[in-house]
């Protein structure tokens, strides 16, 4: 490090010393009449002397430069403030007191960045944070085939539940501190994302390799500054930038092999034939149901997937400007055939400073283009399990073998479903952000930010003439094209002032946002002369009636949000911290009587470790108590016109009038002028600590999170309203929990070190109340033979979201038939009634945990992450529907069913028999890397690594994988629709030049 300072700074400090010394000599004698000489040393965080540090008296041109040994001497008055600045380090200001000696330590930027947390409209040191915030840097992120940046946080943040299947085109469900809304669309349950200061930007516009840090704001004291969109927490993403004096070129790449981690163990054809014969059943019809084949349908549908990722970036930073650009290419072939994602992301930025850094102009541009192929998963996934293995995929003439007369589940050839139906999507997201920052006077800065996000979605699907999904229709094509735009204008002032032992920071701002969605159309038509053009050139279709042409009922809508916000942060003596914020939001989405809302927050912290009485306790390096309360809102996930009466058409509303087919237009939504925000009030008490010179650090947080005025559609009387449902504020929900985080440098020697981090969280979710006309909300209508319309979950006061509502299984009777308990308490061997259902358990986990470890030995590094959940239930409706012994002549059965009686006509009924433990422990990732030291000066760093994802999972769950989607109103259900989880092996390289 000393050599580096010498190399870069000797010429700098020699040159800089001349004008600075001349400026000092030019001061008049009166300037120094009451001044004295201040001497001292400036060092870095390793106590090495720093030459070339500029030392100035704040507010004047008087200054000097430190000598090669880091020493300095300057004339200053008592009460003046000395400012120490250095390239690649954070500036430090220290007041001149009664002492003539002043020693200063500067933290270089690389080190300082680790201690900086991004908060709303600014940054703060970790030690000054009063709310519950978790900060992760790029080196902390998860490794693997990362489809979306949300997966970088999986298992890393206490209280954050990220669930993801193996589907390359499916976004993960992200829930922070439990579910707190009844709405499921358009990210209503997800945290609010902020990218480089742009609120509401899509997280999917970024390549994971371009992200420098992610800060997760959990409590309302931290999130309330974002008002009506922050009830589910806020995730702030900061992208990579070149550091001052740096010129860099980086390349990273990996290739992976993705395999199916587990299959459902279905019977082979010989086993199915034997099972039927052993139970006295006549052989299957030949050749329509048994042509002598032994087809393993899962193997025909699944494959070994291959993925690759390449990221090239460069950047540089000088005294007055910095710039950079990157390009990312990602290709992920799913483990189900014909499912894949290909994406290119291009990003560029430039920052320019003027007028001695008084003005900074920035421009950031990111463009993401993705192409995805998909299949009709809701048909293919169950078919590859249910379809009889006793038939081959093809007829002798090469056409797909089908038996449309067969009843039961899985009646369509899964390979035909795979290959005779096409789904393709093209998406382009563009984010442009321009920023102007003006340092008006010392400590006062004005920021003006304008951004626009453009999201273009083009969809095309084609069901060809041979598909079992549209028999006799000669092909069905659908095309849609929709553009969504999001424009944001932010303007705010930051004021930072230190006087004596007091520090105050002020924020005041204004925000305007406009979302325009569904700008486009969608249409479906049928009857093509051939399948050659698929969904292209829809005009070549030959529909025989108007009813065969269907247009999307997706009206264009515009939502506007206007906000005023402010925040005060006060600090005294580096020990007592106080923060208060207030935001006023006005939204066009709500009723005319409730369009404006206030979202206040207040929090405080006591840095106990800075007290005089703690100085004699060297074991405790840091100790801080935090307390906060605040309110935030949730206004996302529903139409911009939810509070208004809306007129439109229904699919069956066309009628014949005066020789023409016309649409019947009428009310399709009622007006509710009193509709208002969902509001979440959070109380958070936390303790941050550091022991043994911060070799062991951690935090404990306890929170109470209450959400009121939940928005939901409730049925209403047609005698009072023109439409049978009304969007209202329907209830309250409460989440209470505790989070514990421990970080330790367990071993640190010259050649070997071990860092470990553990987080665990517990959350209790309960619906506190529902509106009087909506005492129970029935959800999760899973269907199945004789069970259409039955609900398997309910929302009810006193129960959690995801409460299972099932029949109670009582075992088998003497004939081997499944029995159940009815509402009267009797055991019956017939299918129960819906009135016999009862609360059977919750999908909400009692505990979420993650344990990550990093080992370093010379040039080797080894990292692994173990994560899991405990105490949740999963309804294995897939197993229920498969476990149907009496239908084994119509569909395949799993090996599990061999233990059932063939006479059990009730085995398949969805009951608490199929409610299983969802607890699991997973070795999520293990990575072994080696950094090559080269003698080539152009290569700064070269690292090779091997990585494995989902290497093993310990669970009692009988399904494919216990990591079931926890989003929406029906969490924890496996119902013939689970895209298989993958086991991935990766080889990668990271190079810096």
Q: Could you give the distance between the termini?
A: 19 Å
Taking Cα atoms only, what radius of gyration do you get, to the nearest Å? 32 Å
The percent of residues in helical segments reads: under 10%
* Net shape: globular
* Main sheet properties: 22 strands, antiparallel, barrel
Please provide the count of β strands.
Answer: 55
Q: Which blocks of ≥5 consecutive residues have pLDDT under 50?
A: 1-33
Q: What would the average pLDDT be, to the nearest integer?
A: 90
Q: Strand content of the residues, in percent?
A: over 45%
Tally of alpha and pi helices: 8
Structural class call reads: mainly beta
Topology of this structure?
Layout: H1 2-26, E1 36-43, E2 54-57, E3 63-65, E4 71-76, E5 81-85, E6 92-95, E7 104-105, H2 109-113, E8 116-119, E9 122-125, E10 133-137, E11 160-163, E12 173-176, E13 192-195, E14 198-199, E15 211-217, H3 220-223, E16 234-239, E17 247-260, H4 269-278, H5 297-301, E18 305-317, E19 321-333, E20 340-354, E21 359-374, H6 377-386, H7 414-419, E22 421-441, E23 444-463, E24 476-499, E25 502-526, E26 550-551, E27 557-572, E28 576-587, E29 596-607, E30 620-634, E31 646-648, E32 654-657, E33 660-663, E34 666-669, E35 678-691, E36 696-708, E37 711-715, E38 725-729, E39 731-748, E40 752-770, E41 776-779, E42 793-796, E43 803-806, E44 808-812, E45 818-821, E46 827-828, E47 838-842, E48 847-857, E49 860-870, E50 873-876, H8 877-882, E51 915-917, E52 920-932, E53 941-955, E54 973-974, E55 982-992
Parallel strand pairs: 1-7, 13-16, 50-54
Antiparallel strand pairs: 1-4, 2-3, 2-5, 5-6, 8-9, 10-15, 11-12, 13-14, 15-16, 17-18, 17-55, 18-19, 19-20, 20-21, 21-22, 22-23, 23-24, 24-25, 25-26, 25-27, 27-28, 28-29, 29-30, 30-35, 31-34, 32-33, 35-36, 36-39, 37-38, 39-40, 40-48, 41-42, 42-43, 43-47, 44-45, 45-46, 48-49, 49-52, 50-51, 52-53, ...
């Amino acid at each position: 490090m000393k050599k580096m300072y010498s190399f870069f700074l000797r010429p700098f400090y020699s040159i800089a010393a001349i004008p600075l010394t001349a400026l000092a000599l030019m001061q008049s004698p009166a300037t120094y009449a009451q001044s004295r000489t201040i001497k001292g040393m400036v060092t870095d965080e390793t106590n090495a002397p720093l030459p070339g540090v500029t030392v100035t008296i704040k507010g004047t041109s008087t200054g000097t430069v430190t000598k090669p040994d880091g020493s300095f001497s300057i004339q200053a008055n008592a009460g003046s403030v000395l400012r120490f600045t250095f390239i690649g380090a954070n500036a430090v200001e220290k007041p001149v007191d009664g002492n003539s000696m002043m020693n200063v330590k500067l933290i270089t930027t690389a080190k300082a960045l680790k201690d900086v947390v991004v908060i709303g409209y600014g940054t703060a040191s970790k030690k000054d944070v009063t709310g519950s915030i978790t900060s992760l840097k790029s080196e902390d992120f998860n490794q693997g085939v990362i489809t979306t940046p949300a997966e970088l946080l999986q298992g890393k943040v206490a209280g954050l539940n990220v669930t993801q299947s193996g589907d390359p085109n499916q976004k993960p469900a992200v829930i922070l501190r439990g579910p707190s809304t009844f709405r499921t669309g358009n990210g209503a349950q997800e945290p609010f994302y902020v990218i480089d200061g742009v609120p509401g930007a899509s997280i999917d516009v970024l390549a994971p390799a371009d992200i420098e840090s992610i800060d997760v704001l959990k409590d309302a004291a931290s999130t309330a500054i974002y008002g009506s969109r922050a009830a589910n927490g806020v995730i702030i993403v900061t992208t990579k930038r070149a550091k001052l004096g740096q010129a860099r070129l980086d390349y990273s790449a990996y290739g992976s092999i993705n395999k199916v981690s587990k299959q459902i163990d279905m019977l082979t054809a010989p086993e199915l034939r034997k099972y039927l014969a052993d139970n006295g059943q006549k052989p299957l019809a030949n050749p329509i149901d048994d042509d002598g084949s032994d087809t393993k349908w899962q193997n025909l549908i699944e494959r070994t997937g291959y993925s690759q990722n390449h990221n090239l970036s460069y950047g540089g930073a000088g005294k007055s400007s910095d710039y950079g650009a990157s390009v990312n290419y990602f290709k992920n072939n799913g483990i189900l055939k014909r499912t894949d994602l290909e994406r290119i992301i291009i990003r560029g930025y430039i920052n320019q400073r003027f007028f001695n850094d008084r003005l900074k102009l920035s421009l950031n541009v990111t463009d993401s283009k993705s192409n995805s192929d998909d299949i009709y998963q809701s048909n293919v996934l169950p078919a590859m399990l249910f379809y009889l293995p006793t038939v081959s995929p093809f007829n002798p003439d090469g056409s797909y073998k089908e038996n449309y007369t067969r009843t039961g589940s899985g009646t369509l050839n899964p390979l035909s479903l795979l290959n005779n139906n096409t789904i393709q999507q093209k998406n382009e997201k563009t984010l442009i952000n321009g920023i102007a920052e003006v340092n008006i006077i010392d400590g006062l800065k004005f920021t003006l930010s304008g951004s626009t996000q453009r999201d273009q979605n083009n969809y095309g699907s084609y069901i060809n003439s041979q598909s079992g999904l549209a028999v006799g229709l000669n092909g069905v094509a659908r095309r849609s094209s929709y553009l969504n735009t999001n424009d944001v204008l932010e303007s705010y002032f930051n004021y930072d002032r230190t006087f004596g032992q007091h520090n105050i920071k002020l924020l005041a701002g204004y925000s305007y946002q406009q979302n325009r969605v569904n700008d486009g159309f969608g249409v479906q038509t049928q009857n093509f002369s051939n399948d050659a053009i698929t969904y292209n050139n829809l005009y070549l279709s030959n529909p025989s009636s108007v009813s065969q042409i269907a247009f999307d009922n997706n009206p264009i809508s515009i939502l506007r949000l206007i906000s005023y916000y402010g925040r005060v942060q006060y600090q005294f003596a580096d020990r007592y911290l106080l923060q208060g914020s207030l935001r006023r939001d006005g939204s066009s989405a709500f009723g005319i009587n409730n369009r404006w809302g206030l979202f206040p927050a207040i929090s405080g912290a006591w840095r106990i470790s800075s007290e005089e009485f703690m100085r004699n306790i060297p074991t405790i390096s840091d100790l801080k108590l935090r307390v906060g309360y605040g309110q935030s809102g949730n206004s996302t996930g529903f139409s911009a016109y939810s509070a208004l009466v809306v007129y439109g058409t229904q699919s069956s509303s066309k009628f014949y009038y005066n020789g023409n087919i016309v649409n019947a237009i009428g009310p399709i939504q009622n007006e509710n002028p009193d509709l208002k925000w969902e509001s979440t009030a959070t109380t958070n008490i936390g303790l941050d600590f550091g022991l043994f010179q911060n070799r062991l650090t951690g935090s404990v947080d306890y929170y109470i999170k209450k959400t009121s005025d939940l928005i939901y559609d409730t049925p209403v009387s047609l005698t009072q309203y023109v439409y049978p449902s009304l969007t209202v504020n329907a209830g309250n929900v409460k989440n209470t929990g505790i989070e514990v985080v421990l970080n330790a440098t367990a071993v640190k020697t010259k050649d070997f070190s071990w860092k470990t981090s553990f987080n665990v969280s517990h959350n209790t979710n309960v619906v506190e109340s529902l509106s009087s006309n909506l005492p129970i909300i029935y959800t999760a209508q899973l269907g199945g033979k004789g069970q259409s319309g039955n609900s398997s979950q309910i929302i009810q006061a006193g129960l959690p979201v995801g409460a299972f509502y099932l029949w109670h299984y009582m075992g088998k009777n003497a004939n081997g038939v499944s029995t159940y308990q009815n509402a009267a308490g009797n055991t019956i061997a017939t299918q129960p009634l819906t009135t016999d259902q009862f609360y059977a358990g919750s999908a909400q986990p009692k505990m979420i945990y993650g344990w990550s470890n990093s080992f370093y030995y010379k040039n080797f590094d080894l990292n692994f992450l173990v994560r899991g959940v405990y105490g949740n239930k999963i309804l294995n409706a897939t197993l229920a529907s498969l476990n149907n012994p009496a239908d084994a002549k119509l569909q395949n059965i799993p090996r599990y069913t061999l233990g059932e009686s063939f006479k059990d006509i009730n085995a398949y009924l969805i009951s608490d028999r199929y409610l299983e433990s969802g607890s699991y422990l997973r070795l999520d990732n293990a990575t072994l890397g080696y950094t090559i030291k080269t003698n080539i000066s152009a290569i700064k760093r070269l690292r090779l690594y091997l990585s494995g994802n989902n290497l093993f999972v310990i669970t009692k769950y009988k399904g494919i994988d216990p990591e079931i989607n926890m989003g929406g109103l029906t969490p924890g259900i496996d119902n013939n629709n689970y895209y298989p989880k993958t086991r991935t092996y990766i080889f990668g390289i990271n190079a810096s030049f």
